[in-house]
Amino acid sequence: MDIRSLMASVAFSIALASSASAQTVVSGTQFTVQVTVNAGCKIDSGPSGTINFGSTSGVAAAPSDVTSSFAVTCTNTTPYKYYFASSNDVTSSVNRQMKNGSSSVGYKILQGTTEMPNVATSDIGATGSGVSQTYPLTFRVTNWTPTAPGVYTDTVTLSVEF
Predict the structure, then answer these.
(1) Whole-angstrom Cα distance, residue 56 to residue 157?
(2) What is the CA radius of gyration of the chain?
(3) Contacts of 73 (CB under 8 A, 6+ apart)
(4) CA separation for the pair 84, 120 (Å, rounded)
(5) Range 111-116 contact pairs with CB under 8 angstroms and sequence separation of 24 or more
(6) Fewer CB near the last or first residue (10 Å), C or N of the chain?
(7) By 3-state DSSP, what share of the chain in percent is helix, strand and coil, each rounded to 5?
(8) Using 50, 70 and 90 to split pLDDT, how confident is the model at 93?
(9) What is the residue extent of each domain of the chain?
(10) pLDDT, average across residues 83-98
């Protein structure tokens, strides 16, 4: 190979290499990445099964309190209220009633010393933190008087409003 052929070969190689590395950048379209987080709540756990005061004679002392809890998760900064709706009548003299026919046994649902409301107009609630918040409950028989033998029940629904 003579010098001219060698030089032509080197020149061609340099031109080829420089054309491969000399790329043109074209600006693309800008776009936005987005997510919308809506306020939300869920009941993680609640009193389940049966809150059972046990068995007692109608002339014995009122049954002992029963404790339980419930847990709620709401999105961070979301205010919420909670309440416990009873299926049986709620009267002014007995907050809630477990019934057996026309007979009844009164009871309350407490959080600390605060009576849990039966309606959605409650002011009892909190502000969501994005993590589960647990609330202890106490179930207490009230207005205990001798009553007819039988099983007394009420169906309660825990609701969270946000």
Answers:
(1) 26
(2) 36
(3) 41, 42, 44, 128, 130, 131, 132, 133
(4) 9
(5) 111/135, 111/136, 111/137, 111/138, 112/136, 116/83, 116/84
(6) N
(7) 10, 35, 50
(8) very low
(9) 41-161
(10) 76
Angle at 67 between CA 66 and CA 71, to 5 degrees: 145
Locate 40 and state its tokens.
């939300």
Tokens of 51: 């809150």
Kindly state the DSSP code that residue 129 receives in the 8-state scheme. Answer: -
pLDDT per residue over 42-80, tens digit each? 999 999 789 999 988 877 788 899 999 999 999 999 999
pLDDT greater than 80 at residue 140:
yes
Give CATH superfamily name and number for 41-161.
Fimbrial-type adhesion domain (2.60.40.1090)
Query: What is the value of pTM for the model shown?
Result: 0.76
The dihedral through the CA atoms of 93, 111, 74, 76 has a sign that is positive
